Amino acid sequence: MARFGMVIDTLKCVGCMDCVVACQTENDVPQGHCRDWIVTETRGTFPTLTMEIRSERCNHCDNPPCVTCCPTGASHVEDFGRTVQVTADKCIGCKACLSACPYGARFVHPDGYADKCTFCLHRVKDGLDPACVSVCPTHCMHFGDLDDPKSAVSQLLASRRHHTLLPEAGTKPRVFYLD
Amino acid sequence: MDETRRPAAAARAFWTLAAAGAAVLALALGAAHYMELHGHVVTGMSNQVVWGLPHVFAIFLIVAASGALNVASIASVFGEADYKPLSPLSVLLTVALLAGGLLVLVLDLGRPERLVVAATHYNFRSIFAWNMILYNGLFAICALYLWALLERRLAPLAKPVGLAAFAWRVILTTGTGSIFGFLVARQAYASGVIAPLFIALSLAWGLAAFHLAQAFFARLAGEAMDAAMLVRVRRLLGIFVVAALYFVAVHHLTNLYWAKQAAFERFILVGGAPYPALFWIGFVGLGSLVPLALLFHPRFAGARATSVAAALVALGAFAFLYVFIIGGQVFPLEIFPGYEARSAFHDGRVGSYAPSLPEFLLGTGGLAAAFLVALVGARALPILPAAAPAIPAAAAK
Hints:
heterodimer; A: alpha+beta; Alpha-Beta Plaits; 4-stranded mixed beta sheet; two-stranded antiparallel sheet; 26% strand; B: Formate dehydrogenase/DMSO reductase fold; 13 helices; disordered C terminus
C-alpha cells in the first residue's frame, strides 16, 4: 500500500506563493484561510546569515496527534496513500485537532468543521500531482510514494540531506525539506 | 415575617430568580445562535486560540461540579455523619454545575447540531471521547445517588453509589486535566502534573461553589447556617486552596526547571500582559491569599466573610483559567529554537485574543443554566437541610 509524502527543496523555493494560490483555487479554500503557506526563516547576525524558505502544510504525520484526539473519528488515516483526512460530516467542530496539531495546519471552516490540506487526494486518484506541486515554477516540490524506493521522493531523500518540522514531537511528519 | 406570608414571599422570590436566570439563559442561546449563524469568525477566537472565553466558563463549571461532590463524599465515603444532611444539595449542585458547563461546551462547538455524531461515534484513543462518557456517566451516577439519598428504601445504596461517584469524579477531573496534559502542540501544556492540579483545583472551586449555594439557599429560606458546619467548611476550603496553590507552584517550578520553557514562563508570569496581572493579582492574590486570610484569621470567622472568601476563590478560578487556557494558546510552539521566522501564517508569533460579547454571553448562560437547575431542583426536591442551630450573632457578622 502506498504511503504518500512530499519533498520540498528549500534551495529551489523562492517563496513566490504560487502553491498557496493554486491550493486556494483548486480546493475552494474560504477567504481568510489557507491550507498551505510560506515561511521565511533566518538565522545568525549580519553578515553571516542563513535563510530558508519553506512551503508548509499539513504534514500527514505517520503518528498524527489530530487523529488520536478526534473524539468522533472524523479525522482519520485514509487507506489510500495513508494520508490524514477529515470527514466533514463526522466533525462536530470541537477544535481538539486544532489544539493538538503542533504545526497549526488546521482551521475552522466557516461551515463549522475542521479543514486542512488533503494532499489533493481527488487529483492524486486521477493520477495527477497535488495542485501546489503541479504549479511550482521552480519544481522545488515533489510528491510520491515514500515506500517505493524508485519514486522521486524516495530517491531525493536517499541522496540529499533533509529535515522535518518538530521531529521531537514524535509525530513523524511526511513532508520533508531538503537542505 | 408573619409565618402565613412566608410561603407567598418564598414563591415570589423563586419566580423572580427563575425569571432572571431564564433571561440570562435566553441571551446566551441568542448569542450561540448568532455565532452558529456567522461562524467562528465573529468570535475573538482564531486558528491559534481555538478555545476562548466560553471554555473558561465551561471548564470552571465542570471542574467545580466535580468538587461540589466533596460534601456528599465526606459523608458517604468517609463516614462523617455531620455532613449527611448537606449531601443532597452537594449532589444536586454537581448536576447543576455539570449541566451548565456542558451546555456551554456543546453550544461552543463549530457544529452543535452534530452532537449526535459525538454520541454515536467514539474514538477511544481520544481523551475527548472518554470525557463524553465520563460527563454523561457522572450525570447518571449522581441521579442514582440523589435518589438513594432522598428515598428511604434506597438508603443502603447510598454508600456504594457514593463511593462510585467519588471514584468517577476523580477520574473525570483527571480526564479534564488530561485534555491539556496530553497536548504537545503548545508550550503551556503536555505535563503529567496537570491532572492532579485539576483535582486540587476542583476540591477548592467545588467547595467554594457549594458554600455559596448553601449560603444562598439559607438566605432565601430566611434560615441561619449551621455554625459548627461553617467552621468545618472554612477549614476545609482553606486546606483545598493551599493544595491548589501548591500544585500550581509545582507546575510552574517544573516548567522553570526546563530551559526550553523559560520563555513561556517569562511570558505568563512576567511580561505577557495581561496574563501576569491576572495570574498574580487575580489568582494568587485575590483568589488565594486573601481568601486564606479571611478563612484562617479569627477576626473573620463569620458566615459573610466565608462567603466573600468563597466568591473570591471562584473569581480567582476564572483568572487562573483565563491565563491557563487563553495564555497557554497565544504563546506559540517554538518549532526551531534560535531561528527567527517570518511567515505568511502565524508561526512563531504571540497570538492575540479579545473575547467578543457573544462569547461572554454564552459563558454567563452556563452559569445561569447551573443556577436554574439548582434553584428548580431545590424547590422541587427535599434537598435542603432542616433549619440548623443559629450562628452566634458575633460570628454571623
